[in-house]
Amino acid sequence: MDSVGKIFAYHRLRFRDLLIWGFCLRECTRVKERSSRGRASPKSLRTRAVPSTPVLIPRSPKGAVPFSSNQSRCREPHPLLSNQNRGGHHLSLDYYKKTCPQFESTVRDAVFAKQSSVPATAPGVLRLFFHDCLIDGCDASILVSSNGYARGERDAVPNLSLSGDAFEIINKIKNSLELTCPGVVSCSDIMAEATRDLVKMVGGPYYKVLLGRKDSLVTNITKAAESLPEPEMPMDRIITKFTSRGFNIREMVALTGAHTIGFTHCNQFSHRIFNFSATSDVDPTLNPKLAAGLKRLCQNYTTDNGMSAFNDVRSPSKFDNAYFQNILRGLGLLTSDHALSVDPRTRPIVEIYARNQTAFFVDFAAAMEKVSVLNVKTGRKGEIRDRCDQFNHIPM
């Protein structure tokens, strides 16, 4: 096998490309973290694992990466404002300090064991988390199974390729916590915490996770198709998916960098390597050696839909900035990867991240803090499910 062939893998996994998208609150408002559960403990406020300021970008007074005048930027976690909650319910870093003090260690130990045995866990959970948050907020609605009353959003076409291992680890953590802290911890908080821990575990940045979400009371299959971008969408439409939720272009590019881990099924990029056009069998924007290797790998994709390739052919299991370096060299699998590298609105940001991993990590961490509090349910707007895959009440 030549050197190109060695960078591909054959995997029969039930998830496709890890196209990362995100969104943020309408305005970035720095507020003092408030919580009805008390102040954050020293452990929850530990210093994050990456420097606070990128090397190639000038520092603002607080060390944040500056944005242009028409872009907003938050460097602090984003507690829900009081007018967004009923009865003074807020998210906090130490929400379970008294009610379930073993919450953090239970999640951390479980994801460590799972990731150690199944390396695909990290990208799977990360993608599951984004799909959940994008559809109707970070509320674990994507975990609910369909029943005789209605079909859940997890059965929507864009979600059919989500990782089975991702669902499994969230359910396993929930079952463990129900034995030690019954009726206390939400599935949506488990997803948020597990995602952060897995990102850090595979080399990514540490970021703070606010807790206190409730689980949704509904799940909507139609919203999934309406909300989720597709890799074949023009860049204008992809950008609109983000900006319509108050998410700026720089943050979109940063979150798309999660393509640095995970896999893509061959049927998602087969049109780029087989019968591309009347004049070329292969998309000419693809690196020729990559295209040749993909053609060999995916030659039987029509009969075996489990065939897939690494998103990042250089360091597929490590969270780093190689994805951005790759797409500038024609080494991106998806049409959207190529578009990101050539569009004049996104290419300058891609170039910054390709040169400077610290800049990417700082921006990714800040964007994840924003994503994780999108339209969360608190108070009477949600519940603590007994099981993550079903509501406490039967009908949807």
From TrEMBL:
Region of interest (Disordered), ranges: 60-86
Reaction it catalyzes: 2 a phenolic donor + H2O2 = 2 a phenolic radical donor + 2 H2O
Plant heme peroxidase family profile domain mapped to chain residues: 90-392
Essential cofactor(s): heme b; Ca(2+)
Residues that coordinate or bind substrate: P229
Listed EC numbers: 1.11.1.7
Residues the entry annotates as binding Ca(2+) 2: T260, D312, D320
Residues where heme b binds: H259
Keyword Heme assigned: yes
The keyword Isomerase belongs to this UniProt entry's keyword annotation: no
Residues noted as binding Ca(2+) 1 in the record, renumbered to the chain: D132, G137, D139, S141, E153
Disulfide feature: C100-C181, C133-C138, C187-C388, C266-C298
Any one cellular-component term (Gene Ontology): extracellular region
Cofactor note: Binds 1 heme b (iron(II)-protoporphyrin IX) group per subunit. Binds 2 calcium ions per subunit.
Similarity comment: Belongs to the peroxidase family. Classical plant (class III) peroxidase subfamily.
Protein role: Removal of H(2)O(2), oxidation of toxic reductants, biosynthesis and degradation of lignin, suberization, auxin catabolism, response to environmental stresses such as wounding, pathogen attack and oxidative stress. These functions might be dependent on each isozyme/isoform in each plant tissue.
Name the record gives this protein: Peroxidase
Organism: Senna tora
